[in-house]
Specification:
alpha+beta, Thrombin, subunit H, 15 strands, 15% helix
Length: 300
């Protein structure tokens, strides 16, 4: 896998789409990130496990679509007009969605000795709870390993580093809940209503890919109820998106054009010898919320 120098390699929870089970192979990759002398060495943990697919079959499928797909779609009377755009050609509703989401999104950093792993998270209530992915907290340890000797902190949107408490973890669903002091000043994100997410709607992935905090990438909902294997549990349904998701996006929100969270970004698909191919997966927010609520009830 080609990886930009100094940015580390993807690593994270494995997933296997049922259609590719006979040929899929899981890999968990991690690499040290060089740092200037006198500073700690950092390691960026990835958003996702890797599933290796057949490039040939993918090419054939693309050819079939290109050769036999429907012709151009013509507008019909009464069709809704497109959303107004900004001067840069970006739909204004996505700009507003980014402005609404960013104040509640944090970078999550886990320090253990000289090693630091990272991901993303977001505030969900006025009790200062933060949802993130459980695999971020494991670092190089096996899933579910006690966090003895780990220091968990978040970096707020204004750049402040704040020590966070681990309220609880659920490795099976790959959800964990943190809590920070009220002084963090995070704005809780609004969660989308059940059943409101639609295939084709515009979405933003918000988080800290490759350690670049406050990053927003745009795409659409590619599919719903996609069966994948996430965390250390069995298959689960996930929201599929083509919004760019990279190492460090794990635990960050996937939001719709209204700035409402529809999922927790968790995994990406790659082809052998290539990086992200524009297929990412997010845990549906209703399931993430239910898991987080159960964790909070148990842990406070």
């Amino acid at each position: 896998m080609t990886v930009p120098t100094g940015l580390g390699e993807p690593r994270g929870p494995g997933f296997i789409a049922p259609e590719t089970d006979p040929w899929a192979r899981l890999e968990g990759l991690a690499g040290p990130v060089p740092q200037p002398a006198g500073r700690w060495r950092h390691r960026l943990l990835a958003t996702a496990g890797v599933v290796l697919l057949s490039v040939t079959s993918g090419g054939l499928a693309g050819g079939a679509v290109a050769g036999f797909g429907p012709g151009p779609v013509r507008p019909t009377a009464g069709a809704p007009s497109p959303s107004p755009s900004t001067g840069a050609g970006v739909p204004a509703d996505l700009v507003a969605a980014a402005a609404q989401a960013l104040p509640g999104v944090v970078s999550v950093q886990v320090s253990r000795g000289s090693m630091v792993s990272g991901g993303s998270g977001f505030a969900i209530d006025d009790q200062h709870h933060i949802i993130t992915n459980d695999h971020i907290l494991d670092g190089d340890s096996p899933p579910g390993t006690p966090l003895n000797g780990h220091q968990i902190s978040v970096v707020a949107p204004d750049g402040r580093r704040i020590v966070a408490e681990v309220v609880g973890r659920d490795p099976g669903s790959d959800i964990a809940v943190l809590r920070v002091p009220a002084s963090a000043g995070l704005r809780p994100l609004v969660l989308a209503e059940p059943g409101s997410t639609q295939v084709g709607e515009a979405v933003l992935a918000v988080g800290s890919p490759l350690g670049l905090s406050g990053t927003v990438t745009a795409g659409i909902v590619s599919a719903l109820d996609r069966q994948v294997r996430l965390g250390n549990g069995g298959r689960q349904t996930a929201v599929q998106t083509d919004a760019s998701i990279n190492p460090g996006n794990s635990g960050g929100p996937l939001v719709n054009a209204d700035g409402e969270v529809i999922g927790v970004n968790t995994a990406i698909a790659t082809l052998e010898g290539a990086g992200s191919i524009g297929i990412g997966f997010a845990i549906p927010i209703q399931r993430a919320e239910q898991t987080a609520d159960a964790i909070i009830r148990r842990g406070g």
